[in-house]
Write a structure and sequence with these properties.
Elements lengths: L18 H7 L4 H6 L11 E5 L3 E7 L8 E6 L2 E8 L8 H4 L11 E8 L9 E5 L2 E7 L14
Antiparallel strand pairs: 1-2, 2-7, 3-4, 4-5, 6-7
């Protein structure tokens, strides 16, 4: 019902002569691939982190989240992204209030992820949010020259 069943009955591996192998093939189905992925949980979001050479660029998918409901914090080499998703407003329509969900996948509440990204120039971190995508640019600190020449007397 509504795509909840993780089995593919039209799979050619389900023939009589290959029943043993088909038992293990079921774990290759999309339901199982996504069900155990930690990033795919209901209270999380997808993130990409790129090394651009002089900076890191973090891109997070946050569809449907208002800009004012996103908070970024960089503390002790950890960047934390925290969002709040408000619950839908109830309608005055009595037919909608008595309706029951058959399946509910949209998440309401708080989501938060933290990333260790050390050696960052925290004064120059830039962030932008457009079309449900948060982009954070974290410039790397320039390493100070620590080598010195010591004269021997």
């Amino acid at each position: 019902m509504f795509g909840l069943v993780p089995f593919n009955f039209n799979n050619p591996a389900n023939k009589e002569d290959n029943k043993i192998n088909s038992i293990f093939d079921i774990f290759d189905e999309p339901f199982f691939q996504n069900a155990f992925a930690p990033v795919q949980s209901a209270n999380s979001f997808k993130v990409d982190v790129k090394d651009l050479g002089s900076a890191y660029e973090l891109t997070a998918e946050l569809p449907g989240i208002k800009k004012e409901n996103i908070s970024l914090n960089y503390d002790k080499d950890y960047l934390t992204i925290k969002t709040t998703v408000d619950k839908e407003e109830k309608s005055d329509d009595t037919a909608k209030e008595t309706a029951k969900y058959l399946r509910r996948e949209r998440y309401y509440g708080e989501m938060q992820r933290s990333f260790y990204i050390g050696d960052i120039d925290s004064d120059n971190i830039k962030a932008s949010y457009k079309d449900g995508v948060l982009t954070v640019t974290l410039p790397k600190t320039t390493k100070k020259e620590t080598a010195t020449t010591i004269n021997v007397d």
